[in-house]
């Protein structure tokens, strides 16, 4: 019996406007559950220029050991390189090139003429195959496409090096015997389909997706696109159970661990139902214009971070999101102001070039504020004295004098983080250098001390990065 590969597209459904939404952690948890179930392939959300996409795929690639990690790259060549980089740690990486092959989808969804689409298919599959040994070409809406054009697109994909060809009944209008005849006819007209993995994707518009998948297996298909949380696709649970019970009759076997199937499906269902409930209420606004909750994924968090003016690396983005997750787990919502403090404390933590040794502040209602400060750099004590309109202004000016450079103060925030006479104060300082924003955080029972530590924290990030460059 031949192996029937089962690809799960649950994660992808969420990115296509399905009635549920998974956050960053939930997507990784979903991938781990599917991997333990031993599905053949897990299709992720599509890769794009967004750093959060790369970080998600990289995290999934590191977590998944048994299943293939399949990444849709769209029709943009730049996405191929991004996907390959994100899949570096994947045991079984796959690139997925999807293209509409019906006139209606080419014109209204992709805005391409047939000749241009054929050229794109050739270029995308060729480039993907050059960097990855496993490339899937997905012919979207194949059952409604012009037969001659569908045949030509498949021949081009095969010639360019596709290792799997997937044919989609996107509209879900075909009956099982019609779909079987469609596949049989294509294999006759395009002989190369018999030499590679033939996959199918069936829409459940007529509640016949599972039956069409069975018909496809009879017609020679060896890969079925399914969904563990089913919202209009072939059911992973149904097909896996069917192959386990009647595999001999169908001439196919599955790697899915059927003994764990029921429990894992329940876990995935709970995960996705939580995402469905979340989607209905996540657009509320806080008093300061925006807030985030523990259900927000890394894309949502990074969008707010970007609106605050920060440009974070993938590593810093991961650290900020992890810190955000710890705080969001303990409270109902996290405001943009609080996220600002999280960025200051979690992003770009560097070895301190300048460290505070001591400071003396003089202030009063009849004198200007003054600051006498000692910093250490590489074991050397550096000292400075300055005046300012207030104690904090004097302290910041003293640091600038010691360092020998004045940086633009973009923002300065102070707030209490505990209650009572010995309350802890938190300060966030934003400095701008070279057009980039750097933030630092300081916490102390002395608000002036917290401000000095925050300023030094931001300053050390600037000095470190400028030294690296």
Keywords, separated by commas or semicolons:
469 residues; alpha/beta; TIM Barrel; Double Stranded RNA Binding Domain; 3 domains; 3-stranded antiparallel β-sheet
Secondary structure layout:
Elements: E1 2-3, E2 5-8, H1 10-15, H2 24-37, E3 41-43, H3 51-63, E4 68-72, H4 77-86, E5 93-100, H5 103-110, H6 114-131, E6 135-140, H7 147-160, E7 164-169, H8 176-189, E8 197-202, H9 209-218, E9 223-227, E10 234-235, H10 236-250, E11 252-253, H11 261-281, E12 291-292, H12 298-307, H13 314-328, E13 334-335, H14 336-346, E14 355-362, E15 369-377, E16 380-388, H15 391-403, E17 408-416, E18 425-433, E19 436-444, H16 447-468
Parallel strand pairs: 1-11, 2-3, 2-9, 3-4, 4-5, 5-6, 6-7, 7-8, 8-9, 9-10
Antiparallel strand pairs: 12-13, 14-15, 15-16, 17-18, 18-19
Describe the structure.
By secondary structure, the protein is α/β, with parallel strands linked by helices. The chain has 3 domains: 2-279, Alpha-Beta Barrel (TIM Barrel); 282-346; 355-468, Alpha-isopropylmalate synthase LeuA, regulatory domain (Double Stranded RNA Binding Domain). The chain has helices at residues 10-15, 24-37, 51-63, 77-86, 103-110, 114-131, 147-160, 176-189, 209-218, 236-250, 261-281, 298-307, 314-328, 336-346, 391-403, 447-468; strands spanning 2-3, 5-8, 41-43, 68-72, 93-100, 135-140, 164-169, 197-202, 223-227, 234-235, 252-253, 291-292, 334-335, 355-362, 369-377, 380-388, 408-416, 425-433, 436-444. The strands form 5 sheets. The protein has an 8-stranded parallel barrel with strand order 2-3-4-5-6-7-8-9, surrounded by 8 helices. Strands 14-15-16 form a 3-stranded antiparallel sheet. The chain has a 3-stranded antiparallel sheet with strand order 17-18-19. A hairpin with a 2-residue loop joins strand 18 and strand 19. Helix 3 packs across helix 4 (77-86) and helix 13 packs across helix 14. The model is unreliable at 278-288 (pLDDT under 50).
